[in-house]
Amino acid sequence: DAGVIQSPRHEVTEMGQEVTLRCKPISGHNSLFWYRQTMMRGLELLIYFNNNVPIDDSGMPEDRFSAKMPNASFSTLKIQPSEPRDSAVYFCASTIAGSANTIYFGEGSWLTVV
Amino acid sequence: AQSVAQPEDQVKVAEGNPLTVKCTYSVSGNPYLFWYVQYPNRGLQFLLKYITGDNLVKGSYGFEAEFNKSQTSFHLKKPSALVSDSALYFCAVRTYYGNNRLAFGKGNQVVVIP
Predict the structure, then answer these.
(1) Whose CA is closest to A29, among A103, A99, A107, A100?
(2) Taking CB atoms and an 8 Å limit, are A48 and B43 in contact across chains?
(3) Cα Rg, chain A, nearest whole Å
(4) Of the partner residues B45, B90, B99, the one whose CB lies closest to the CB of residue A56
(5) Is B110 left (phi over 0), alpha (psi -120 to 50) or beta?
(6) Is A75 helix (H, G, I), strand (E, B) or coil?
(7) pLDDT tens track for B26-70
(8) For chain A, what is the largest distance between any 2 Cα atoms, rounded to a whole number of angstroms?
């Protein structure tokens, strides 16, 4: 079975450029999460969706970050404009809504902003 | 608010020896507890979870974890560690009332010495 699919796997971009990260959740899953991982801050939840609706975006760092889920099989995380401090690994994860259900992670998008 | 503590930064163990990675949690209500493993340059992989029932939970790769309600702990164990178990291990907790959020600990780096 296909897991959570993220693209690109690696991206190097210049400060000020727009970055778009993409995610395809596991088929049948109706909750989707975006996490960011850095050495300093560990794993941070940025935003999550239930049934394509953003439920909690309190972890989104600032207005430069935005996330959308136009349908059940696709989500994007956009950073505009990007800054060097945005360099991190961004993970998308999905599950069937319900606290006892396992959340499954993608392989991550490794972003470097120079 | 729900939270998880992983008190040790690094756990070193010789190959063949027992491995224990510690986790304590704080929640309101009954916890759902999870362990994930992250190998270098990879996403988080689900190992095991406790929802209800038997306090000893068995998971992937020979790992198990014991839920202890009185000590609010969920330590991960493996009877005989392998060099290939060297990775970053995350404990996480959700609750029925947790609004679907999965709260992660900071992670423990496990180093298995040949």
Answers:
(1) A103
(2) no
(3) 13
(4) B99
(5) beta
(6) strand
(7) 988 888 999 999 999 899 999 999 998 899 999 999 999 999 999
(8) 41
